[in-house]
Write a structure and sequence with these properties.
Layout lengths: L1 E2 L21 E2 L5 E6 L14 H20 L3 E10 L9 E10 L3 E10 L4 E11 L1 E2 L2
């Protein structure tokens, strides 16, 4: 799969005015990614509750960035599993953490979670990321 970064990714694209515009913090060894995000109310589902698709996007973004760092180049999600534990409220700061647990030539396996700023677990999940070709 050929991919190209045009900075309009819904999650991290700085050129996407309606996106989340997150800034993933990647450890030097590429094994862990942390994202801090405070989703505003226009990302809600039910009143004042952040939509599950937005939470899924945040988890997916962190997992994929572990793959990008691990492969040292473009990567895409191959599999994503998510378990919602508690609702996230609009305007609350969320901490997304993803850690590599296994790497092969084709895939990177990652475990991830989203916590509230107070340390309450909002979402748990895991994913597999595969290398992509193209410019990044």
């Amino acid at each position: 799969m050929r991919v190209e970064n045009n900075n309009r990714c819904f999650a991290c694209g700085k050129e996407n005015p309606v996106g989340l515009q997150v800034n993933p913090d990647i450890t030097a060894d590429g094994r862990q990614v942390k994202i801090e995000c405070t989703p505003p109310s226009h990302f809600q589902g039910w009143a004042n509750v952040i939509h599950g698709g937005i939470l899924s996007t945040l988890l997916d973004e962190a997992i994929t960035y572990v793959g990008i760092a691990s492969f040292d180049g473009p990567a895409v999600t191959a599999q994503l599993e998510i378990r919602f534990k508690k609702p996230a409220m609009a305007g609350d700061k969320l901490i997304v953490t993803a850690k590599r647990v296994k790497m092969s030539k084709r895939l990177v396996e990652v475990k991830a979670h989203i916590d509230s700023e107070q340390g309450e677990r909002i979402v748990e999940g895991s994913g597999k990321v595969m290398r992509a070709t193209g410019t990044f």
